[in-house]
Every structure is written in C-alpha cells, then in structure tokens.
Amino acid sequence: MVSSRHMLCGAAAVVGLLGHAHNVVAGKHETRCCSMKPPATSGKWNTLSGQWPQLVGHRGEKAFLPEHTVASYWQAALEKADYIEPDLTLTKDGHLVVNHNEWLGENTNVASIPELAHLRTSKTWNDGGGNVTVANEWFVVDMTLEQIRKLRVHQDHKYPWRPAHFDGVFGLPTFEEYLQTVRNVTQLLGRPYGVIPELKSPQLYNRGRSYPRYFEDRALLVLEHYGWATVNNVNRSAHADLVLQTPLPVDGALGPRAVQCFDLDTAEYLAQHSDVPVVALVQSLPWVFTPGGLDRVASYAAILSPWKDFFVAGAEPYFRASNITWDAAEIQNLGGFIQPTRLVAEAHKRNLALSPYTFYDSHQDRAYLCQTGGAKGFCPRSRQEELYYFFELGTDYLFVENIVEATLLRSQFNDSLHSSKLTYPLSWCAHGP
To answer: What is the dihedral of CA 60, 120, 165, 24, to 10 degrees?
Structure first.
C-alpha cells in the first residue's frame, strides 16, 4: 500500500508543474496564426464515443519521476490520467515484473551490483515486428525476483531535464504491485483509473516454459484475480504456483481495462481467451495500414495503436524512411495505403478505436519525419499544434508524457468546441500564414 507521505509528495509535484503547463497552454511556446477558422459548436468530439479522448499515462509519469515505479503511477493518477500503463516482463522464476525494456542496464543500477555481474549476456529474439539483438546487457528473464529486488530505478540520463531527485529510491514493481497501486489510487482519490498492460516480447518470455502461451495466460490470470478480467480456456493447472495477495478494497466500480501487444498473434490470443479489450500495437507491419488490413485487425482488436507519424507523414513515407519493405501487389489487393488524415475515419468505420503513441513532454523532440525533411505537408511546431491536430482527427486515446500539459490542452480544446470565439490556434493554422 502507498503511504500518505508518497501521496503528499506527488500532490506537491503536481502543484509545481501547473505553472510550467500554464505557460504551454497560454501560448508562450506556441506559434500564432493570422486567421482563425470558427470551431464547431456542437461540443461533440470526433471520437467513436463522441466524448473527449482518453489520456494514457505512458509508463506512469516518466517526465517527472523514474518510469514504472509506484511513484510514477501515483504521479500519473494525481495528474488525472485516464489509464496508467505498465509494461510486463517475466522473471526466471515466473514473476511478472514491470519494466519497459527486456533488459535492465539503461534504467537501473544493475551494473553496480557485483553479485549480478555474471548475468550479463547478449540475446536475440522476435518482438512481433522482427528480430531484435541486444548485446552485453542484463535481462529480466535471466533473473529471479529476489535478484530483481536488489535493483533501483533511475531516470534515463539521455534526458537531463527530467528531475533526478528520486533516482535510486524505488525498485521495479511486480504486476501485482502495479494493480494494487491502481486499486489504491482509485479508492483514495475517488476516481477510477484504467489499467492497460503491454505484454513485451511473448516469444522471449515463453522460451523454456511448460507450454507456448505461459506468459499470456499468467498475465491474464493475475489481471482476473485483481478484478479487471474474465478469463476462459486457459491452462490454469500450469499456474498452480501463482500465489496472489488479497485485492485492496475499492468502493464502487474499478476503472476500464485493456491489454496490449506488438505481437499480433498474441493480441488475437488475448482477445480469444478473455473479455478484456485488446490493443494491437503496430509500427513495422505495412499491411495493417490498408482497408483490408484494418478489416483483419478489427476482427479481434478493439483498439489499433500505431506510431503517431502514420497520421502525419503517412504509411508509405514512414516505411521508406525506416527501410521497411512491402509487397506492392499485396498492398494493392488490400486496397492500398490509407492516407494519413483518413486513417481515423477508416478505422472508425470498422468500430476500431485509434490510440497513437507517444506524445512526449514539450521539452523533448516530437520526432516526426517532417522535422528533418523526410515528409511534406503539415508538421506540428509545438505540443499544442500536435495535440490539437490529433484531437481534430478524432483519435480515441493518446499515450502521453507530462500528463498535466496534455490534460490542460484537452480541456482547452474542449472549451473551443463550445465557443464561437477562439483565442488560440487550432492545427489548421499550422499551414499558414
């Protein structure tokens, strides 16, 4: 359980962030336009639900606290994220542990622990989009939970503007601890928060297990125990060793749920064996971005989650820039690549929600092809222009960092839908003057 001391620390952090976020939405970081198009006055968003998009706290709130720590989840909750995201890995002795990478050297102190030095190695595996090789690292899959407990998490040093006050304070949480934290914040803050775990590299974590879907079933069974899933036709007997804690109490309903994976075979399996809405994560599969591809994904997934540049540069420029090839005849037979501004509408025709990723802190590069001349047309010049563009398109979810910025920009855009006067730019202004 999280102490009131941690809660108060997080609340103080949010107060400090509001001043920075106010500067962003007030226009100090923005480019103004000469003319304004009157906004819609119906108050209805272009999402499938007609309501504003849901904001997913990417790895908790990594802009201000070490990612995937209990503190980052609390910070995301205090900033009013709608969902709080964990990434699931699996230890040697079968414990689900939250960490973004399959390896540990970038965000923990593993290299400074002598008794773990012998575990440094290299691995190759398929992550659902192709083979990945990582050399001279420490991997979660080679460690026991007892060894994982020795680690402490720190901010990624590639981003020096991120506060490092809590480096070395927190360890990696288990999936159980994440779910208990979400139940805890739901109860104590009086607001439901969604869970949206991503299963990382199932092919890696199923190696050497008792059957090929061990990782997936174990994750679903833990999700079920804590109240967010009904699971069917899984190998429960293979998980008799799974000893889970009593869920923390929550008055009223829990928040929504979804489960994600880049391995689309796994995504389809998760849809077949639970009632949890499935998110198909995609970055390197050209066939998905065609009418026929959307038909195929919509047959099992509730949400499609592509990299955000598919909505700006588009599929063909993105794949060319990434040196990803495709079968031209296959793409043509599937209806051709969908234009970037049509992707949301085409998905919505199939009752498939869209959840682009990742919308970084405004201190960070937005990472679009157009910024380096790799694509022509609209190119977001600020976080406001970026988010407003995706709000207008009607994307249903957004994976965000610096959640307080995104929350305030969403509220500001929502106000524009109810007003005939506009005092800040919408994305169509990005093309002029």
So the answer is: -50
- CATH code for the domain in which residue 375 is found: 3.20.20.190
pLDDT tens column, 50-64: 999 999 999 999 999
Both structure tokens of 353:
């929600």
Please tell me whether residue 22 adopts helix, strand or coil conformation: helix
Q: What are residue 88's phi and psi, to 5 degrees?
A: -100, 130
pLDDT tens for 25-42 read 444 443 333 233 334 445
| CB count in 10 Å sphere of residue 31 | 12
Residue 58 and residue 157 in contact, taking contact as beta carbons nearer than 8 Å: no
Residue 421 banded pLDDT, cuts 50, 70, 90 = low
Locus of tokens 């599937």: 334
Number of other residues whose CB lies within 10 A of the CB of residue 417: 15
Torsion sign over Cα 398, 299, 331, 199: positive
Q: Which domain holds residue 84?
A: 52-431
Q: Domain for residue 22, yes or no? A: no
Looking at the DSSP bridge assignments, the partners of residue 257 are 195
Backbone angles phi and psi of 272, in degrees to 5: -75, -20
- What span, in angstroms and rounded, lies between the C-alpha atoms of 188 and 372? 46
**What's the number of domains the chain is made of?**
1
Is 145 within a domain?
yes
Residue 3 lies in a domain: no
Helices first, then strands: H and E counts in the chain = 13, 13
| DSSP calls for 225-278 | HTTS--B-S--GGGGTT---PPPPP-SS----B-EEES-HHHHHHHHHSBSS-E
Whether 44 is in a domain gets the answer no
Read off the pTM. Answer: 0.89
